[in-house]
Amino acid sequence: MEGLFTLLALSIVMAITSFVVGSLPLAFTLSPSQLRLISSLGMGVLVGTSLIVIIPEGVETLYSANSHNDRKGLSTRSVTAVEWQHRSFPAVAAVDFSSSNKEAASTFPLTQTVHVTRDDQSELRQREDEGESNKDEHNGHKEENSSHAWIGVALISGFILMYLIDKLPDFATPSKQQRPPYHISLDNLGSGLRRNPSPSREGGLLDAGSTSSRSHSFATTTGLVIHAAADGIALGASTSDTGLSFIIFLAIMVHKAPASFGLTSVLLKQGVSSRTARAHLVVFSLAAPFGALATFLFVRIVGSGSNNDEAATLWRTGMLLLFSAGTFLYVAMHTMQENSPNSELRELPMNGYGDSRDIPTESDKSMRDLVASVIGMILPLFLQLGHAH
């Protein structure tokens, strides 16, 4: 129950912090460079957490399950050896060589019988020890190879899950309808060429623009909610280790803070009201805690239905950690692509009439974003120093 209380406390703090940070755009706005700096730091923390914290912890937990099985088998063999030796002593002392039985003593020479019996026991014991050592070596190699295979399976499973979550909604939504041509009469040619910051003021584009904005805002929120729920998997899978849960909690928070801030900013730019944006923010803030609690309950239900062997519990925990590491790697890769300069160039107007001031200059792509990303990658290493064991 201690793990459940810790997870509940972290989930409550995560939900409140995400909502507070996401509400900031309703009061003031950050410049694009400041928001990009926070996003770069969060991206670096995601990469560092997956490579420095989650993957090593998952591998160590997975191999500790095998070592636990080895220790259990060794103790069982020790008890068997003691029982075998205990049963073998009466066989050696089966013949009575006392002075009262001289005929038996003359029939069975003392030195030869004892010598042969000891050699037989030594040879038999040596053969059994060699057979057990060869069997242990074979089983050790088999378990080691099996662990190597499961590491890759868990990592790629988490990565593929996030990839499908990211790409499948694109196939489910209908294809974008082509915007109807904007006809300008010769009498209104001058006013038509003027740039209007709000094209929805034109009667012909008002309905289409509002419908497109509403559907786009829903798609944006849905994508971020799914990502946040997947991030909660890592937190729910690490409840067996309080120190690891705290590190993963910090990594998720650093990633969710700019995401919640950016969600509200994008919704406001799309013309969504403050009340609707706040409702979207509440759903996003509760997504990661819901994913963490659902993962925790799933692990407990599956664990209670199977045997409560410590090795099996360690194996499941290691697989969940590696699975969450795969999800972290995809989210980090996705964030790196969003922060790349090429992604900004793809969003430029392609009709040739865009304002040249909208084009990002070389000064916008400063070195501080790169430094922030590297600092974010190294930050989990310092958090891991006190947790290393």
From TrEMBL:
The record's Gene Ontology cellular component field reads: Golgi membrane
Give the range the annotation lists for the signal sequence: none
Keyword Disulfide bond carried by entry: no
Which topology term describes how it sits in the membrane? Multi-pass membrane protein
Name the residues that span the membrane: 6-28, 35-55, 147-165, 243-268, 280-302, 314-333, 370-388
Pfam families found in the cross-reference section? Zip
Q: Name one GO biological process term.
A: zinc ion transport
Any one GO MF term held by the record is: metal ion transmembrane transporter activity
Q: Region (Disordered): which ranges?
A: 108-144, 176-215
* Protein keywords: Golgi apparatus, Membrane, Transmembrane, Transmembrane helix
Question: Where is this gene product found?
Answer: Endomembrane system; Golgi apparatus membrane
Compositionally biased, Basic and acidic residues: which spans? 116-144
Entry keyword Oxidoreductase: no
Q: PANTHER family in the record, alphabetically?
A: SOLUTE CARRIER FAMILY 39 ZINC TRANSPORTER , MEMBER 9-RELATED, ZINC_IRON REGULATED TRANSPORTER-RELATED PROTEIN 102B, ISOFORM E
Could you tell me what this protein is called?
Putative ZIP metal ion transporter
Q: Source species, please?
A: Aspergillus novofumigatus (strain IBT 16806)
